[in-house]
Design goal:
With about 450 residues, the protein is α/β, with parallel strands linked by helices. It has helices at about 5-20, 35-45, 55-70, 95-115, 115-125, 130-145, 150-160, 190-195, 225-230, 240-260, 260-280, 285-300, 315-330, 330-340, 340-350, 350-360, 380-385, 415, 425-435, and strands at about 30-35, 75-80, 85-90, 360-365, 370-375, 395-400, 410, 440-445, 450-455. Helix 6 (about 130-145) crosses helix 7 (about 150-160), helix 7 (about 150-160) packs parallel to helix 10 and helix 13 packs across helix 14. This is Stage V sporulation protein R.
Length: about 450
């Protein structure tokens, strides 16, 4: 049990001093020791205080089962910001929490210096914990006014669309410009037309104008579904829009964590190993225990299995960073840390040589349960690692057309998406959307054989 809090504070302060000397540059980090149950709540909710919803309870049970089976253990959760906030489990051992302290400092350095983290923190703000707590309070007030069931329906829709934002656009963006094209005058009638229209019984032409064309909404496919529904749903109430925009802002905040997971975890793992190696003030037995914990974190496989069918981002990121620093030096690594996300990091620096060394491959699972290796090619391995990260891991769906009657057409961009839709799940999500849109909603996609399919909300 980690009961020696004074020793942990002492080691943490000295590790922070060492980190600064080693060139790490980060916003201040506030460390807090919490219980394992509270840490699990933070992990499944994504934030210490967040809006309540049944889906988080499902995630909690799933995490509890995995932890009970020994498949998952949470050492820390760190929230980038100014200051950063880091939570450590109070019943971890002193060596484990000493390692975690160094790991968090690596995360903090990455978060301050990586361009994607800097960009999204500038948009979403550096005080996400306080803002999320304020949003949760507003939603509790909405429950008191409108009832649990009505608020939960809105949260169902918003959280189902949580990954459907456009990370290429600004968090705070303007509505579509109102197009008011100037009406064009009809051509001036010639002499014959004037004489004709002046005949008895004919009404004189009085500056007839062509009706202005109706602006298309959206003017182009809109992939930020949370933003579009919040601003263009015909009958949405203000408190409902507030929920959609709250979920959207938190989704923007989390995006860099998702898009840089391999880089970020690898960078933090590299630095916790390096800082512990340089920390000559640590007792020898504590250092050995901490390094044992490091080995558990960055190993490529789970339990005693020697074959990994899923990538451990800690192991992969750590291995790539070590390879970069060995071949290019630390300053080159720092520049890569600033400029890349996982897409560029994997494609540019996971070499064929490293793929062979790490024994990475692409496999397929047959219906009979047999596993077969199908590819070891560098490009195939790259795409297998990165495919789940494309578009925040969600199908690429756009709001395509808002009809005059208020009905909404969604379009699945299956050609650039590269992944199919679970049609049963799509029907459920469309039902959620229909409840807040309050008009028919259709989704145009394709079936298993590439045939056109249309899914329609039942809320007609």
């Amino acid at each position: 049990m980690c009961t020696d809090v004074d020793s942990l504070k002492d080691y943490s302060a000295r590790i922070e001093k060492l980190a600064r000397e080693q060139g790490l540059d980060y916003f201040p980090v506030d460390f807090e020791l919490v219980t394992n149950n509270f840490m699990m709540e933070i992990a499944v909710y994504g934030l210490p205080v967040r809006m309540h919803h049944w889906s988080f309870g499902v995630r909690y049970i799933h995490q509890l089962i995995r932890q009970g089976m020994g498949h998952s253990r949470i050492f820390e959760v760190m929230f980038p910001g100014d200051p950063c906030r880091a939570f450590l489990v109070n019943n971890n051992t002193l060596p484990e929490n000493t390692l975690v302290t160094a790991h968090v400092l690596g995360h903090a350095d990455f978060a301050k210096n990586n361009h994607l983290f800097a960009q999204f923190m500038q948009m979403a703000g550096g005080h996400i914990l306080e803002e999320a707590a304020a949003r949760a309070h507003r939603i509790e007030n909405a429950i008191n006014v409108h009832g649990q069931e009505q608020v939960e329906e809105v949260l169902d829709a918003a959280l189902a669309l949580e990954p459907h934002i456009d990370t290429n656009r600004e968090l705070h963006r303007s509505l579509y410009p109102v197009q008011t094209p100037k009406a064009e005058l009809l051509p001036e009638p010639d002499v014959f037309q004037k004489r004709y229209h002046n005949l008895p019984g004919e009404k004189p032409v009085q500056g007839m104008r062509s009706p202005p064309p109706r602006a298309s909404v959206p003017p182009q496919p809109e992939y930020d579904l949370l933003w579009f529904i919040a601003h263009y749903a015909p009958d949405m109430e203000d408190w409902e829009r507030d929920i959609f925009l709250a979920v959207r802002e938190e989704s923007f905040y989390f995006y860099p964590v998702f898009a840089c997971q391999i880089m970020n975890e690898g960078w933090a793992s590299y630095w916790h190993a390096r800082l512990l190696r340089e920390a000559d003030f640590l007792p020898h037995d504590l250092y050995l225990s901490a390094i044992k914990a490091h080995s558990d974190v960055v190993r490529p496989y789970a339990s005693e299995r020697q074959l990994a069918l899923a990538v451990n981002p800690y192991h992969l990121g750590f291995s790539i960073w070590e390879d970069i620093i060995e071949k290019k030096g630390l300053e080159a690594a720092r520049q890569i840390c600033k400029e890349e996300d996982d897409f560029g990091f994997v494609r540019n620096y996971l070499s064929a040589e490293l793929i062979d060394k790490l024994d990475l491959f692409v496999y397929e699972a047959r219906d009979d349960g047999d596993i077969r290796i199908v590819e070891r090619d560098i490009h195939a391995v790259h795409e297998a690692i990165l495919a789940p990260k494309f578009n925040y891991g969600a199908p690429r769906i756009a709001a395509n057309h808002l009809h005059v009657d208020g009905s909404l057409q969604l379009l699945h961009d299956h050609q650039s998406d590269g992944r199919g839709l679970d049609l049963a799940r799509a029907e459920r999500v469309l039902e959620y959307i229909g409840r807040v849109w309050r008009r028919p909603v259709t989704l145009h996609t394709v079936g298993e054989r590439g045939e056109a399919r249309v899914v329609t909300s039942r809320r007609l």
